[in-house]
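>> Question from a student workshop board

For tomorrow's exercise we were told to take the sequence and the ligand below, predict the bound structure, and bring the output to class. My setup keeps failing. Could a helper post the expected result so I can at least see what it should look like? The ligand is nicotinamide-adenine-dinucleotide.
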Amino acid sequence: MKRITVAKGDGIGPEIMNATLLILEKAGADIEIDEIEIGEKVYLAGNSSGIAAKDWDTIRGNKIFLKAPITTPQGGGYKSLNVSTRKFLGLYSNVRPCVSLHPFVKTKHPIMDLVIIRENEEDLYAGIEHQQTDEVVQCLKLISRPGCEKIIRYAFEYARQQNRKKVSCFTKDNIMKQTDGLFHKVFNEIAAEYTDIENEHWIVDIGAARLADTPEMFDVIVMPNLYGDILSDVAAQITGSVGLAGSANIGEECSMFEAIHGSAPLIAGQNIANPSGLIHGAVMMLNHIGQTAVAEKIMNAWLKTLEDGLHTFDIYTEGLSKQKIGTKEFAEAVISNLGEKPNLFKAVEYSNNTALQLPKYKRKEAAAKELVGVDLFVHWRGENPNELATIVQKIESNNARLTMITNRGIKVWPNGFEETFCTDHWRCRFTTENNEAIDNKDIIELLSKSVDENIDIVKTENLYKFNGQIAFSLGQGQ
Ligand code: NAD
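>> Workshop helper replied:
Here is what the output should look like for this input. Compare the format with yours to find the bug.
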């Protein structure tokens, strides 16, 4: 008997969770349930994290969490519980299978069977945002080597376990050479260890276009957080409905299983939502806890129900479907098919689908790190970069000369273009002529002088070489 935590969530959450739990019970899942309350009610009662402190203990104690979608109220400093659960519990891997159900569910892509493995803890979802000037706000994009290694290794191990042939990686490393560049580099390193699996890399824009147009060319796709979030919705939707796909959020200790869609408030309470996404989440959970036979039984009954043409409104198509049915009736139909196999779809076989055991991340030896300069970000309301250069040159020292000014990343001094539009947010780069080592004291001196000169520094960013290699981006146009 496995004890799990269940939250019924908001909107369509309770309807699809009740349907799913009934199917689990009738299929003989060997689970015991601790139910907790999360989401809108908890937020509106004044808890900005959407969950009571004691309920974290339940989730951490049971380690397995089956969660219905929740509504995050807009504004008011409410923090997304989905993001914080993934990060607090270290659920680094988000696995989202997207499969076409042709000819029973209408889709433009009859041969589509892919899995998106989305990095789940970092990237722009670190939620570190600041307003720095009247005109400019920023969001920090954090990508770490452990984050990349863990998710990419997970993708290759998953592909091997599931007998999949290829792992594709999507990044935008032609622009983000440090962050997405690291993801791509680690992908190449790890891919080299898996000679039995084909690998390829796509720039995310054309990769996304091919995914939406020719999804049959992909098998497993591994992506940083934001691209994975967006493209897994696209992939689920083009199989027929966003209501079909489930998602497993896997960590080293705990795991959370859910549908990929949200709480769909407009269709809540009408018994019309498709419970399939959450059912798939629950099937992934059963596999994860080793109850593969029950998972198989549910999935085969579900495939048979779709073949029988019993469809919820989101996938109902005149001529293709036999009957439009509600959430409860769909669950009852799946239950009546338990023990049966689909006729046309291939029956699933899950005996090999248990939780993956991955090696723990091992921290590498520290590189030789050398401070070679600093970027000072200045709030300045003037328009002519040459004027700003004259002002900030007053704080120069021998070890820290002004070598470049950029505005939103594009070089505007020296030799900028008059046409370049400038905001009130300027990056002034101070280095020696040949990027030689400087000292922290040089930076302190710059800052101290800038106070005397009334220069409004809103942020500093140190410039380093790691193992002798420049480890910061140049100005665009530099
Ligand atoms: P949504 O996924 O709830 O709905 C998008 C569209 O898909 C709507 O037209 C909806 O009716 C339809 N849809 C979604 N699930 C369906 C289902 N099971 N059956 C049939 N149709 C379905 O996205 P949204 O409208 O952008 O977000 C609504 C709320 O959900 C927001 O508060 C958002 O923050 C939250 N949300 C929660 C989660 C989560 O808890 N994991 C994920 C995404 C969004």
